[in-house]
Amino acid sequence: MSTTTTSHAYGVGILAVLVGVSVGIVFYQVYYLPESLAKPSVDEHVLHPTNETIIEMIPGSGLADQVDNYVPKLVNIQLGVDNHVIWKNVDDTAHTVTPDHRHEDSYSGPFGSTGVVMPGEDFEFLFTEPQEVDYHCEPHPWMQGKVIVTKQRF
Q1: How does pLDDT run across 93-125, given as a tens digit for each residue?
Q2: C-alpha dist (Å) from residue 54 to 19, 41, 83, 122, 127
Q3: Which of 16, 95, 109, 131 is most deeply packed, by most CB within 10 A?
Q4: Contact, 122 vs 89, CB < 8 A?
């Protein structure tokens, strides 16, 4: 007759692995995720500027021989003064506001219209950090514009 011996080491090892995994999951959910998904703190003056900047996509913008399309084409704005920009499509053709190179504002997220801006509609973006953004209209690549964002001078 033979006797088998049992060891508790196997059970203790499994228990240690389960505790380690549980601690890792708790750390990930409680500390890592909220910090990685948090938006940066931005001054209230930047989030609620005193003025808005309006850029119009004027009638005839979709025509290749049209010199003016985004009016104005070059916009200089200051954080806290006029950094809320609104593109108004007053043309009878749909347009886009597409960055020339992928661009993301740390507070407002990716820059650019999601899809087309239909006639009579607007696209709005709140710039919260100094930057330069070149943009164009996807279906009409001759339509080009630029936004230069600087810190408030005072």
Answers
A1: 999 999 999 989 888 999 999 999 999 999 999
A2: 57, 26, 10, 10, 14
A3: 95
A4: yes
> How many Å apart are CA 121 and CA 124, to the nearest integer?
10
CA-to-CA distance for 68 and 129, rounded, in angstroms? Answer: 28
Compute and round to an integer the Cα radius of gyration of the chain. Answer: 27
Q: What pairs with residue 104 in β-bridges?
A: 110
Residue 26's SS3 state is: helix
Contact 114, 136 (CB under 8 A): no
Q: Is the dihedral of CA 43, 48, 52, 56 positive or negative?
A: positive
Query: What type of residue is 116?
Result: V
Asked if residues 57 and 87 have their Cβ atoms less than 8 Å apart, the reply is yes
In this structure, how many other beta carbons lie within 10 angstroms of the beta carbon of residue 84? 19
